[in-house]
What we know:
mainly alpha
Amino acid sequence: xxxxxxxxxxxxxxxxxxxxxxxxxxxxxxxxxxxxxxxxxxxxxxxxxxxxxxxxxxxxxxxxxxxxxxxxxxxxxxxxxxxxxxxxxxxxxxxxxxxxxxxxxxxxxxxxxxxxxxxxxxxxxxxxxx
Length: 130
């Protein structure tokens, strides 16, 4: 949600010619959102991975993160150049609008997951008694 706020701030600056500090404040909020979600994503990935699959799961998470960044950059770069680049009047707002749509879809998808179950204790009864 915080990343969406930062994208909305960037879109507002690009379309309404707002002052630069609105963009800086928006990116600060987005950075806080990303900083809050990365450890949670890693923790959930490890929680839901099977016994002995921790390495595979964390590698898959790293690959998915890198692939998502590359795909997002490629799509927005193509969109930016197709609409005129830096000389285009709609290039910057269109890129931020596309990312706003993607962030809104991601939020909708995450809301469907529901609450995360509590972790299963892996301690055996023998260790708990000793």
